[in-house]
Automatic annotation (TrEMBL):
Residues 1-14 have a biased composition (Low complexity). Residues 55-397 form the UDP-N-acetylglucosamine 2-epimerase domain. Pfam families: Epimerase_2. SUPFAM superfamilies: UDP-Glycosyltransferase/glycogen phosphorylase. The lineage of its organism: Archaea, Methanobacteriati, Methanobacteriota, Stenosarchaea group, Halobacteria. Its EC number is 5.1.3.14. InterPro entries: UDP_GlcNAc_Epimerase_2_dom, WecB-like. NCBIfam families: wecB. Keywords: Isomerase. It comes from the Archaea. This is Non-hydrolyzing UDP-N-acetylglucosamine 2-epimerase. It is an enzyme of class 5 (isomerase).
């Protein structure tokens, strides 16, 4: 891989030469530092983590603490095949600027060997071979900005997604992370083409690869396990194919109380059961707006991964504003209605398995899809890959850093 040219002068900038080749001799065994901040990031990074371990990489998993709560138990990590994070950066809640800044400081300390805010964090004087982050959260942009000012290369998993909506903080995070990344793993050709349009793929210091999305890896790996081990259907009194699953958590939908009332009203007025595992943001917003469902809608606490996967796999329709759920629904052949004006997963809309709807349209469209259109909104299971994205990503990492992973890597590559 072509890294950035090393500075030949004695300026301070020479300390931040980010040639990938320069990182290969940090240790005999390559080390990947994986930084995550939310539950979806853990789910999507798990296939990469497992593939790294299988390829004899040393894995260091770090949680920023953005969504670190009691639900993230040892069982959660065991279910996904993840090690317990070696440290929690303690980022917590706060404004976008505060979360990003705390992440930057924490990651910088990890990379230069300084103590972190976590007293239990092990000392590690040697920098990692590469830093990876996934998706579009403040954890990602903070990690990207901190890493790009060091000699350690940064790899962005799920690169190139674009909704065209700069009002979404996640869109800004994606753009910034992609601009400074050294390796970019795009889930689809369309994501790669977005990077091309932005000029990212034309730079000799960056590599762009189409790998598929690791969320499909996670879905397919745990689908049978969820069917066997989850008892959520019985616990909620649900019959496969006869209910709707809903997830609503975007600030656009929760912070605008009239909008939230329309969404909840559409779900609560349905002539079939609707289950909403409530994100804390959603529950607080409903309480603040005085919204109390009394009809078809059943609001539950957040579910563990296997229970949620089981509901998504057996629902007649899913209503969501989540990007990841749109991908999971296509892989599991569950028709999807997305309550947003834009999506960074346009492949699902083009394939006819996902529709963008407004709160005003939701009630009517949900009933029509449930009763008549559901069968026509399935069949595009391979939009985001075949369940081997994690293996491909690790094969590419191993190739970039001269590691014999024992894996054949067959992916698209864009370099000039």
């Amino acid at each position: 891989m072509n890294g950035r040219p090393s500075s030949t002068g004695a300026s301070a900038d020479s300390s931040t030469d980010r040639s990938v080749d320069a990182a290969t001799d940090t240790a005999d065994r390559p080390t990947a530092l994986l930084v995550v901040g939310t539950r979806p990031e853990l789910v999507k990074m798990a296939p990469v983590c497992r593939a790294l371990s299988d390829a004899d990489w040393r894995v260091r998993l770090v949680h920023t603490g953005q969504h670190y709560d009691e639900a993230l138990s040892d069982t959660f990590f065991e279910t996904l095949g993840l090690p317990t994070p070696e440290t929690n950066l303690g980022v917590g809640s706060g404004s976008h600027a505060a979360q990003t800044a705390r992440t930057m400081v924490g990651v910088e300390r990890l990379l230069d060997g300084s103590p972190t805010t976590d007293a239990n964090s092990p000392a590690d004087a040697d920098p990692p071979t590469v830093v990876l982050a996934q998706g579009d959260t403040n954890a990602v942009v903070g990690t990207a900005l901190a890493t790009c000012k060091t000699p350690v290369p940064f790899a962005h998993v799920e690169a190139g997604l674009r909704s065209g909506d700069r009002a979404m903080p996640e869109e800004v995070n994606r753009i910034v992370a992609d601009q400074v990344a050294d390796l970019l793993f795009a889930p689809t050709d369309e994501a790669r083409d977005s990077l091309r349009r932005e000029g990212v793929a034309d730079r000799p210091t960056q590599q762009v690869h189409v790998t598929g999305n690791t969320v499909v890896d996670a879905c397919l790996a745990h689908r049978t396990v969820a069917e066997r081990e989850s008892s959520v259907l019985a616990a909620l009194g649900l019959t496969p194919g006869e209910f709707v699953l809903a997830t609503i958590h975007r600030p656009r939908n929760t912070d605008d109380h009239p909008r939230l009332r329309r969404i909840v009203g559409a779900l609560d007025g349905a002539p079939f059961p609707v289950v909403l595992p409530a994100h804390p943001r959603t529950r607080r917003a409903m309480e603040s707006a005085g919204i109390r469902p009394t009809g078809a809608l059943r609001v539950t606490d957040p579910l563990d991964y296997l229970d949620f996967l089981r509901l998504l796999d057996t629902a007649r329709v899913v209503v969501t504003d989540s990007g990841g759920v749109q991908e999971e629904a296509s892989a599991l052949e569950t028709p999807c209605l997305t309550v947003r004006p834009h999506t960074e997963r346009p492949e699902t809309v083009a394939a006819g398995v996902n529709e963008l709807v407004s709160p005003a349209e939701l009630a009517g469209r949900l009933r029509t899809v449930f009763e008549t259109d559901a069968e026509s909104m399935v069949g595009a299971t391979d939009l985001y890959g075949d369940g081997r994205a994690g293996e491909r990503i690790v094969g590419l990492l191993s190739a970039a850093f001269g590691v014999d992973s024992g894996r054949e890597t067959t992916v698209s590559e864009v370099t000039e």
